[in-house]
Structure formats: C-alpha cells, structure tokens
Amino acid sequence: MNSLPVLKNNLLHSYIPKHMTAVLVICLVLLGLCIVASLVFGSRPVSFNELIDGLFNPNVDSYGANVVRKRVSRTVFSLLCGAALGVSGALMQAVTRNPIADPSILGVNTGASLFVVSGIAFFNISTANQYIWFALAGAMITAVFVFGIGSMGRGGATPLKLILAGAATSAVLSSLVIAIMLPRSYVMDQFRFWQVGSVGSANWNDITTFIPFLIIGIVIGIISSSALNALALGDELATGLGVRTGVLRLVAALAGVLLCGATTALAGPIGFIGLLSTHVIRLILGPDLRFVIPMSAAVGAIILTISDVSGRLIGSPGELEVGVVTAFIGAPILIILATKVKVSSL
Fold it and tell me: Transmembrane ranges (predicted)?
C-alpha cells in the first residue's frame, strides 16, 4: 500500500515528453498551412492579393475576395469539428480501454443520424439548434446501448465485442434511416447531403451554436485526463488510487458523446478522425492522456482540414465531401490496426 501514493504522484505529475515542444511547433505550423490551403484552394483558387483583400480589406468587393470571405467560416468550422472529433475519439478509447474505439466504429454517428432524420420527418426540425439536441439524444442512447450489449457475457466490454456491437447496431440504425427516408422525398432531399459528412455548408450561426458544446467537452476531457491515466491501469488499482471509476466513466463518456453528437448534428457523420488523430499522438508522445487529449484536438483539426481541402482538389470543379475522404483514408488504417495491434485493452 505504501507504493500507492508514489504511483499516484507519478500519474498526476508525470514528466513532459522531451519532444513535446517540437510537436507543438510542428502542429502550429501545420495548422497555419492548413488554414492557408483551405482559404486558397477550391473550385476557384485565389491569388495572394485576393487572399489579403478577402481577409484584411473589407471594402474590396472582387469575386476572389468574396470567395475568401466565404471560405473563412468553412475553415473555422472544419478546424473546430476536427478538434471535437479528435478529443471524442481519445475519450472513448480511454473510457472503453479500446485502442480502436471511434464514434463512427461504435455506431454513435449512426444513432445521431437516425434521430436527426426522425426529427426532420416527424417534427419538421430545420435549424442547427434543433439538429444538435436530436443528434445528442441519438448519440447518447446509442452509446449506452452499444456499451450495454458489448458488456454482456464473459470478460465484460472487450474491444472485439464493442466493435461487433457497434457494427451490428450501426447496420440496424442505417436500415431504419433508409426506411424513414424512402417514402418521404422531402426528407431525403434535406438529409442526403448532410448524411455523407461535409463542412461546406457551414456558417457563423452554426459555429456560434457549436462552440459551447466544444468548450464543455474539451474542458471535461482535459480535467479528467489524469484520472483516466489511472483508469488505464485497471479498475481495482484506479479505485485504490482514489478514482471513482463509475463516475469518471460516465462523465468522460458524456463529454465524448457531447462532442461527437454536436459535430454530427452540424457536419454530418464524419468518421475515423478520432481514431487517426489519437493514434498519431500516441505514436509520438506516448499514452499519457494529459497530452493525448489536447494534442488529439490539434491533430484532428489538421486531419479534417487537410481532408476537406483534398476533397475540393480531387473533385474539382465540384468537390468530394470530407466524410468520403476520411472514410477512404481511415478504413485501411482501421484494418491494419485491427490485425496488427493487440486490442484487448489500452
């Protein structure tokens, strides 16, 4: 028992990784490049002068300057959504002790989608505020259901059972979404562009609605990071260190679902960002969630913004929705992780 205070002290006050400064600088540089690329590239690339006019000369009313101004909200929204999904993935992996947990893999995105399409079909919802509350309800109910199914039987909520439960639940909910949409053409018209996941229709009202959910989720994630480090050692040892594991799991899971649900409500079900960003950071900085959670926000923002720009370039003169791009990148990586990494626990 004498070792417990020492272990607790090490968990709460572990050393900062030696290359943390370098990682921060690289992330800031990449974020800057992503912002510039998102403002410049698209179906109509803009010049440097048009970029400057669009950002700093409100009196200039040229086509290029207006294009830049329109892309500013899209860029900000892309960064915020990527940050939210990155932190959501990190929290879900920590709570489930599953290294390949992700909102899309566990069916949480699909649950949010079902509730949104149900709201459109049966309650005539049409605003961002309405979308968010329906999506959050769907995401939370689905998360509880998947975790409950995955916890049944011997061994509790193992990674494999959670993935299977998430896949099965997602398949059933996707069928329900289609069943609701097919006889209602107006619902299909309103829902089909949202369903693939896109940040292209973002506006400042969406961003204003989204920011409080983002702040609450990330703050909870950062505050709970030290306790989640203890949880990674196992429930018994975490309890011995003074961690209330049940409360911790509930609060951290709610924060993850909050971030995922709010993002899904406004941008659609964008998958694999949480999976990719968290694994990149763990590979570089190690498993300490005090660093993984906030840095997953930065890497998630980078990945989603790069994916959005890539979709615009690949689909030019139109665009390929970002949800398609992230799925194309993330699915092979998930297969590699599932076959190569030990997924029994973190």
Answer: 21-41, 76-94, 106-125, 131-150, 162-182, 210-234, 246-271, 291-310, 322-341
